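RECORD TYPE: inverse folding
INPUT: structure tokens
STRUCTURE:
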């Protein structure tokens, strides 16, 4: 009797853990964060504005009309989440505008907490992801086409066209997270000897690669 009960409890625990691993379901129509303190000592904040203080402006975001600042990779990305667009709070989603110069790349990266849908607004973009068996699923997608990147799988994009490309990405989490593979490996504090053995590179090569990814203030 007790072994059966133990098995049931373990199953329920695993199921509950999987359920709470994603964004929780909202318990109200919306929750616009209240940034006004309700008392001076100590400073505390209400979780949501009173619905009577909410207006249509809380649900509109106008920051995607133009491209953001381009990186050395030829990528300009504007991430939109509840921090800059309060109307997204508790909605379980966020999005991004990504612009790629000709030949620009969005280096291999992944989002640990979200699946992504990428819609090409303009241009020709080589898009793909790698599954857990190291199989690559990649193709050039054009204006009006969509590709899905499964949650937590490494994916990438490159503009192979003759004009700039723009992609609109949507995530099923208001906090999808972002881990860029090159920066995580060469821009962090991983031991040089380990990297030399893992990639078959010399100490000099590792140092040269690190210069590109370590923040300027830490070099």
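DESIGNED SEQUENCE:
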């Amino acid at each position: 009797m007790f072994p059966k009960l133990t098995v049931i409890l373990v199953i329920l625990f695993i199921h509950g853990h999987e359920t709470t691993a994603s964004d929780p379901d909202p318990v109200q129509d919306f929750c616009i964060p209240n940034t006004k303190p309700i008392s001076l000592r100590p400073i505390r904040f209400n979780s949501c504005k009173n619905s009577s203080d909410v207006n249509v402006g809380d649900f509109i975001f106008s920051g995607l009309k133009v491209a953001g600042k381009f990186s050395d990779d030829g990528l300009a990305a504007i991430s939109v989440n509840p921090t800059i667009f309060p109307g997204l709070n508790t909605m379980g989603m966020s999005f991004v505008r990504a612009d790629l110069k000709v030949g620009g790349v969005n280096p291999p990266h992944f989002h640990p907490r979200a699946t992504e849908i990428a819609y090409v607004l303009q241009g020709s973009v080589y898009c793909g992801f790698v599954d857990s068996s190291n199989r690559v699923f990649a193709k050039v997608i054009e204006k009006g086409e969509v590709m899905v990147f499964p949650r937590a799988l490494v994916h990438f994009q490159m503009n192979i066209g003759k004009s700039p490309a723009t992609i609109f990405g949507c995530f099923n989490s208001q906090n999808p997270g972002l881990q860029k593979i090159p920066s995580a490996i060469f821009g962090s504090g991983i031991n040089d000897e380990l990297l030399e053995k893992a990639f078959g590179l010399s100490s000099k090569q590792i140092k040269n690669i690190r210069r590109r990814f370590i923040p300027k203030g830490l070099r």
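NOTES: DSSP finds four helices and twelve strands in the chain.
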